[in-house]
User: Which sequence fits this backbone?
């Protein structure tokens, strides 16, 4: 639909210009394409976009680090890609704890900068748990990813990086991902009794735990 | 009445009698032990931080932070706004360092777009961000000293901070939630006397730091309240993910401005101050020196602000190619990271904000153990947390 008027109107521009002998007729046709160009502009901007996805920015990554890890963990290293010069390793869920320990001790990624998750509800395993690591010795960052389906437990990284404690609690709070082996897995930002996991994609932005709001805040809605 | 019933949660037997701490054990109360509640409405918690303290006499033997009172769902909001629309929201996280927040977000999205801000924009960004670091540290110094009982530095600090906020106001019209930068560069051209204003501030500021130091550095009460309080070793700091001045005070010479330069930091000379013992006094010294270094960066930057455009051609509708990026900057409080995932539409698929305050606060339990209740106030102050960023 958006493409049809766009294709019809460009011919109207030359036709409007050619017979434009009288000043009055000139002033009218340019007004029309100008008006049509504004709504036509977003589809135009969108038109170059479709060719972009095939030119993927995510390329396979094969460096020495990957070779070493593959040598040690073999098939547990599911995917290694590079996105905008940042290394991303996807590993088998069950192997996360061993991998974490290896990366910390052998590869010197001793700082867990961040731990979070991303929800892809259409995928078979909907969650990506994402660990952003940093190595002081190498001055390098590394992103570690684990895929988990709804209800699947992810091994906790607290023993390797104590920093993971609150970060995993936040992921549990916002996504409902359970980390097995976490010393004290409970909600951290939301109230303990809250129902639902707000950062899941099927949780609407206006959604809330109405019962909790009514009971604890004494109001009908927090919106 | 309700507040009382919350502080003594008799109905929830588990939480009333046991206190969960970051080390993985739950202990019952002994005969001499007591759990007291501090906050969320308490002047020394710098916002709405609630701390459950387990005491033996007046000595802290365990603690638990209760956070989330200021949770606004910033990351959820991001998924429902376009890239540009979300930019003002990040100012509301660390609301005493809004410029730094904005810089991190803009640079993260620029990385995602594979765009780069023009040189002029990068230098002006650096100047404003360093001024913001000074302002943030000044606010920390004033309130931290106030918490420990030194009233005077607060007025001195706010006097200088006011000068910085005036520069922000002249530049973009706002003082706190500035939204100074745009994705791709700057929205506003620098006003005519920006360099002069910054220069004048920097000239004055040199002697002003001496004034603060005169009041505190050799002050016996200050030394007594900060030396040996809340010691964090380098290993512990790294294990807890602590970054920023707190990490440097523990002796780790690491600053993202040097390690992975962004904006225009690679052009300027500055030192990274580090501490030795990792106590509250060291953190004080590190932040004081950081203010001096920030001043030097500003002076170098205003000497030569390149001319040229201030905004890269990123387009009005931002559609970053699918993919993801993690970009971190050295905010006044530590590593401020943005993990942005794009699915090729005009709205971010996911924006994760790695707040320095949230992660640094995890080390709180380790730092307060064995100290007196009065030291808890000093340790909350020395961590320099902002609850808007902790809770997001």
Assistant:
């Amino acid at each position: 639909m958006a493409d049809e008027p766009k294709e019809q109107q460009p011919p109207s521009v030359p036709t409007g210009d050619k017979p434009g002998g009288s000043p009055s007729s000139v002033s009218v046709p340019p007004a029309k394409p100008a008006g049509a160009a504004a709504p036509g502009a977003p589809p135009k901007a969108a038109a170059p976009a479709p060719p972009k996805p095939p030119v993927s920015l995510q390329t396979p990554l094969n460096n020495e680090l990957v070779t070493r890890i593959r040598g040690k963990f073999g098939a547990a290293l599911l995917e290694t890609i590079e996105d905008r010069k940042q290394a991303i390793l996807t590993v088998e869920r069950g192997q996360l704890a061993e991998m974490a320990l290896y990366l910390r001790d052998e590869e010197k990624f001793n700082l867990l900068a961040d731990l979070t998750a991303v929800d892809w509800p259409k995928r078979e395993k909907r969650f990506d748990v994402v660990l952003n690591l940093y190595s002081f010795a190498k001055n390098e960052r590394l992103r570690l990813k684990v895929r988990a389906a709804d209800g699947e437990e992810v091994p906790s990284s607290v023993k390797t990086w104590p920093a993971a404690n609150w970060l995993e609690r936040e992921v549990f709070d916002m996504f409902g991902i359970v980390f097995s082996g976490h010393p004290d897995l409970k909600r951290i930002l939301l109230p303990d009794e809250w129902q639902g996991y707000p950062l899941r994609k099927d949780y609407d932005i206006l959604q809330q735990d109405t019962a909790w709001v009514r009971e604890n805040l004494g109001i009908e809605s927090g919106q | 009445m309700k507040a009382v019933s919350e502080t003594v949660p008799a109905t929830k037997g588990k939480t009333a009698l046991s206190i969960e701490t970051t080390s993985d054990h739950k202990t019952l109360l002994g005969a001499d032990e007591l759990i007291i509640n501090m906050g969320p409405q308490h002047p020394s918690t710098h916002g709405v931080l609630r701390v459950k303290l387990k005491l033996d006499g007046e000595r802290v033997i365990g603690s638990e932070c209760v956070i989330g009172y200021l949770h606004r769902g910033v990351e959820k909001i991001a998924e429902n706004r376009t890239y540009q629309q979300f930019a003002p929201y990040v100012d509301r996280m660390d609301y005493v360092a809004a410029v730094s927040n904005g810089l991190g977000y803009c640079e993260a999205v620029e990385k995602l777009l594979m765009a780069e801000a023009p040189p002029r924009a990068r230098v002006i960004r650096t100047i404003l961000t360093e001024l913001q670091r000074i302002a943030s540290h000044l606010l920390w110094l004033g309130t931290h000293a106030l918490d420990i009982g030194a009233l005077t530095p607060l007025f001195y600090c706010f006097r200088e901070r006011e000068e910085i906020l005036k520069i922000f106001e002249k530049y973009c019209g706002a003082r706190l939630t500035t939204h100074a930068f745009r994705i791709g560069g700057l929205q506003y051209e620098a006003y005519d006397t920006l360099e002069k204003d910054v220069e004048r501030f920097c000239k004055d500021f040199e002697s002003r730091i001496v004034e603060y130091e005169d009041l505190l550095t050799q002050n016996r009460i200050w030394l007594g309240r900060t030396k040996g309080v809340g010691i964090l070793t380098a290993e512990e700091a790294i294990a807890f993910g602590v970054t920023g001045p707190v990490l440097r005070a523990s002796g780790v010479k690491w600053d993202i401005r040097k390690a992975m330069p962004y904006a225009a930091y690679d052009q300027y000379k500055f030192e990274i101050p580090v501490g030795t013992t990792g106590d509250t006094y060291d953190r004080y010294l590190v932040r004081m020196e950081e203010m001096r270094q920030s001043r030097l960066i500003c002076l170098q930057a205003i000497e030569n602000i390149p001319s040229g455009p201030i905004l890269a051609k990123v387009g009005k509708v931002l559609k970053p190619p699918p993919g993801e990026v993690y970009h971190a900057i050295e905010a006044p409080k530590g590593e401020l990271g943005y993990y942005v995932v794009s699915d090729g539409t005009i709205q971010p698929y996911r924006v994760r904000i790695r707040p320095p305050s949230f992660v640094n606060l995890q080390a709180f339990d380790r730092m307060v153990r064995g100290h007196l209740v009065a030291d808890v106030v000093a340790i909350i102050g020395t961590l320099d947390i902002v609850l808007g960023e902790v809770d997001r």
Q: What stands out?
A: Confidence is low (pLDDT under 50) at residues 1-53 of chain A. The CA atoms of residues 112 and 163 of chain A lie 7 Å apart.
